[in-house]
Design brief:
There is one protein chain. This protein is α+β, with helices and mostly antiparallel strands and about 100 residues long. It has one helix spanning about 5-25; strands at about 50-55, 60-65, 70-75, 80-85. Strands 1-2-3-4 form a 4-stranded antiparallel β-sheet, with no helix packed on it. The longest helix is centred in the first third of the chain and has 23 residues, at about 5-25. It is elongated, with a radius of gyration of 27 Å.
């Protein structure tokens, strides 16, 4: 094998290794299983979605789980257990300002 051929082989091995490592590093880690049947009483994974939004306007994001399009808050309690809580957004109620007598 000539020096020229060895260079092509070495270049191909290096390029292939770089491509494989790059694919592994960029492979998505959060994949939803494609299943239709789960044990009774459990959510079907493909019907779940996770979003974030600043629902209360305090500048911090809240985690929202959607199951079949219906939103739920995902919170963590004092002992680090997940808590799922339904919620609704209500319009702000305005009241008439009270005028002071002078």
């Amino acid at each position: 094998m000539s020096e020229w051929d060895k260079g092509y082989w070495l270049g191909g091995i290096v390029a292939g290794t770089v491509a494989i490592v790059s694919m592994i590093a960029h492979y998505p880690k959060n994949i939803v299983p494609e299943v239709d049947k789960v044990q009774s009483g459990y959510a079907i994974p493909r019907d779940l979605g996770i979003e974030t939004s600043d629902l209360d306007g305090n500048g911090e994001l809240e985690t929202i789980i959607k199951y079949k399009g219906r939103p739920f808050l995902l919170r963590i309690d004092d002992i680090e257990r997940p808590v799922v809580q339904s919620y609704e957004i209500r319009p702000v109620e305005y009241s008439e300002p009270i005028l002071e007598k002078r």
